[in-house]
Amino acid sequence: MIIKSMSRKQATYSQLVDYFEDGRQDERYNIYHNIYSTNAEKIKEEFHQNAAYISKRKNGVYMYHEILSITKTKNLTEERQKEILKDIGLDYIRNRAKNNLVFGVLHDDKDDNLHYHFMISSNELQNEKKHRFSKNEFSEFKKGLEQKVLEKYPELEQKKLISKEPGSGKEPGEKLSNKGAELKRRTGKTNQKDDVKERLKTVFSGSKTKADFFTALEKEQLSIYVHGNTIGILDKVTERKHRLKTLGMLDEFNAVSDIIEKAETGKEDLKANTNEFSKERINTGRYRQQEQESATRPAGETGTEKETGHSFYGQETGGNDTKNHSSEKPPTDENFRDLEPEDEKEREIRKRKEAMKKSRENDPDYENDYSKGK
To answer: Which residues make beta-bridge pairs with 362?
Structure first.
């Protein structure tokens, strides 16, 4: 058995009555509760007159459209099943909306089920007082009615759907709408939700890093959205949103998030360690360079550029004689290009420019050559 409730915030009584009486109804089983007329136009008028008692407020509910459905069985005639469904419908109204206006119509156009459509006023008869169930109250009401039907009418052979134990007939944590529950009962699948879940499983199974995760989402035409504390998935194919909790995949998402977070944290640690290692390599290389220069200098020279006339590139610039000391040439950028941080490179470039400037200042022909554009 399926029970579904939909509220309407507009007084569209005419539209709903016309929908009820579109030729699919069996008029012998119509239900009139707190209504004086059986004429469709007069029923519409009665609902409008009763709605005049409602205090006007923004987003106020004017009526409820509710559906009560049973699955057909081969053990009873259709006529007998309609009689039983009307008894269930009357019991439903007595406990759901005793003092409200209710118009009920039975539709028998489906091959696998019989169902009632009810139009229920939000307020009681000629009263501004509204009668409504909270979400939990309505849930308990539906469970109680289902249990009563299962016990009183076992010949209907209805399966327990509304009060089914969590996880029975569906995946752990998965929530189904009334329509989804009926579809899954008949076909074993829930159409769009199952499709989204399968695509999400593909995303989760192949995601080890943040880049993997978002690349896989894009490939499956899905995207993540966050609304307050709710995390959900937007299916770009259908433009429908699905909460991860409703899909029963919140735990899987959290597990993948932990894996990605650890991977990203590991990358940051590795980067920090690599930078420290690089700096150590640079300092060690420079120390060795200084040792080599000291070993190749003549006795008494200190190795400073000012005293020896050595330029940064290993050329002696004292006087007009230029002597190339290629064997004493220090390591260049190529030795540490992949290891030096950017700030170290900038400092080295600045030092070289300063050394070149001093070299030129010590050259007596520097000014003339410079003026000639050499």
So the answer is: none
Whole-number Å distance between alpha carbons of 94 and 70: 19
Neighbouring-strand partners of residue 356 = none
Domain boundaries of the chain, sorted by first residue: 2-187, 192-296, 301-374
Average pLDDT, the chain: 76
User: pLDDT at residue 78 above 80?
Assistant: yes
Residue 18 has pLDDT above 90, yes or no: yes
Separation of alpha carbons 142 and 224, rounded Å:
34
Q: What is the pLDDT of residue 124?
A: 92
Q: What CATH number belongs to 2-187?
A: 3.30.930.30
Helix or strand run (H / E) with residue 244? helix 244-247
pLDDT score of 273: 56
Distance of CA 72 to the CA centre of its chain: 39
| Token code pair at residue 248 | 């029963």
The answer to whether 59 touches 127, Cβ cutoff 8 Å, is no
pTM of this prediction exceeds 0.85? no
* CB-based contact 158:150 (threshold 8 Å): yes
Burial 338-350 (b: 16+ CB within 10 A, else e): ebbeeeeeeebee
CA 42 to chain centre: 48
Position 333 pLDDT exceeds 50: no
Q: What residue ranges in the chain does DSSP mark as E strands? A: 2-8, 31-33, 63-71, 100-107, 113-124, 222-227, 230-235, 240-243, 315-316, 323-324
Task: With CA atoms as reference, report the closest residue to 61 among 134, 139, 132.
Answer: 132
| Cβ density class 302-330: b for 16+ within 10 Å, e for less | eeeeeebbbbbeebebeeeeeeebeebee
